[in-house]
Amino acid sequence: MYADFQFEIYLNGLNDVLPSLPADLTRLEALAREKLPPEAYDYIAGSAGTGDTAVANREAFRRRRIVPRMLRGVTGGDLSTRVLGAELPAPLLLGPVGVLRIAHPEGELAVARAARSLGLPMVLSTAASHSMEEVAEVAGPRWYQLYWPGDRDLAVSFLERAAAAGYTALVVTLDTFTLAWRPGDLDNAYLPFLRGVGIQNYLADPVFTAEAGEDPIAHWAGVFGNPGLTWDDLAFLREHWDGPIALKGIQQSDDARRAVDAGMDGIVVSNHGGRQVDGAVASLDALPIVAHAVGDQIEVLFDSGVRTGADVVKALALGAKAVLLGRPYVYGLALDGEEGVRHVLRCLLAELELTLRLSGHDGVAALSSESLFEQPT
Ligand SMILES: Cc1cc2nc3c(=O)[nH]c(=O)nc-3n(C[C@H](O)[C@H](O)[C@H](O)COP(=O)(O)O)c2cc1C
Ligand SMILES: CCCCC(=O)C(=O)O
């Protein structure tokens, strides 16, 4: 179905079908760099420390190779799947990315519209630059990402607002109770941008209170810097959220098992796109180990480093049920708003479907570790 898009392009030319953006999504970053204010580009593209883990994320994909099989009577490439109780047309979600107004004035609204047009869920960040209610008005399937504030009343308020606005699943991000050492942003002294676009959701929250005269950024850091959380605290979330819950930032098998024990519904194997612990294991290397440890007891999602349809094939073959996309759709947003995001998603889905079929898989369910070859390092 998505691959029809390929013929549409051959027949009519890419520019007649979509905005004049390249079909090679890896070229979008350089184009976005020309368009974005330098500090915004540095923040979006940047990662922690030396960027070692961000590079490792990509290398882990390159090390794994798809092994095409022939004459398997492949008729269709069924991408549909079921994730955390929701039927998805493809194993792809728009991952939570905060403060999208730094990329485009329509920010999260443009992303929500593009995701909706393809029936893909958008995971809305706690640090969104439009309120969750505004986004809900234009969004299709939607999940809510929680940065877990220390103030329990504020946490409950976020959860109640999200449920009331129709967000069906909760993604709790565990790896970012404080921002990591990010030299690019430090050199640019970029954090104050949050004053402008980042914290509307908190300031508008009925439970949010700041001391008069206190800097909102310092206040935000105090509220969301919540490093004392432990596995026992998850019971609190269960109590206040009726839908499925997934923990984002899991990289290790014991942690994954603890998520099962805590009654969670899913985990997202993620290293935050290499933006948190520099030197951390590549997320794709962690994936098969974690997936093997939990089997079918919990749903395993994946992110960090997905750039192409072939990458999605690899992550699914290593045990992910679906993947979350980060930076690529933000580059699409920067370049052409809603249309740009749709371009990224359509290209990725078309390539995914073609790669799947050409390598002899009659749908995502046919993928397994046998679909891949791992090159020795
Ligand atoms: C600019 C930017 C902002 C992000 N903001 C959030 C956020 O608010 N919440 C969150 O859970 N993850 C956030 N992430 C991490 C993404 O959800 C995701 O884990 C990461 O981007 C995946 O890696 P990729 O960019 O290589 O695809 C952010 C990532 C970027 C690039
Ligand atoms: C500003 C809120 C945190 C966004 C984030 O998660 C990131 O920059 O990686």
Features:
alpha/beta, Alpha-hydoxy_acid_DH_FMN, 44% helix, 377 residues, binds 2-Ketohexanoic acid, oxidoreductase
Please provide a written account of the structure.
Its cofactor is FMN. Belongs to the FMN-dependent alpha-hydroxy acid dehydrogenase family. InterPro entries: Aldolase_TIM (IPR013785), Alpha-hydoxy_acid_DH_FMN (IPR012133), FMN-dep_DH (IPR000262), FMN_HAD (IPR037396), FMN_hydac_DH_AS (IPR008259), LMO_FMN (IPR037350). The chain is α/β, with parallel strands linked by helices and 377 residues long. The chain has one domain (27-67, 90-364): Alpha-Beta Barrel (TIM Barrel), CATH 3.20.20.70. The protein is 44% helix and 12% strand. The strands form three sheets. An eight-stranded parallel sheet has the order 4-11-10-9-8-7-6-5. Strand 6 (142-146), helix 8 (152-164) and strand 7 form a beta-alpha-beta unit. The model has no long low-confidence stretch (mean pLDDT 94). Bound molecules: flavin mononucleotide and 2-Ketohexanoic acid.
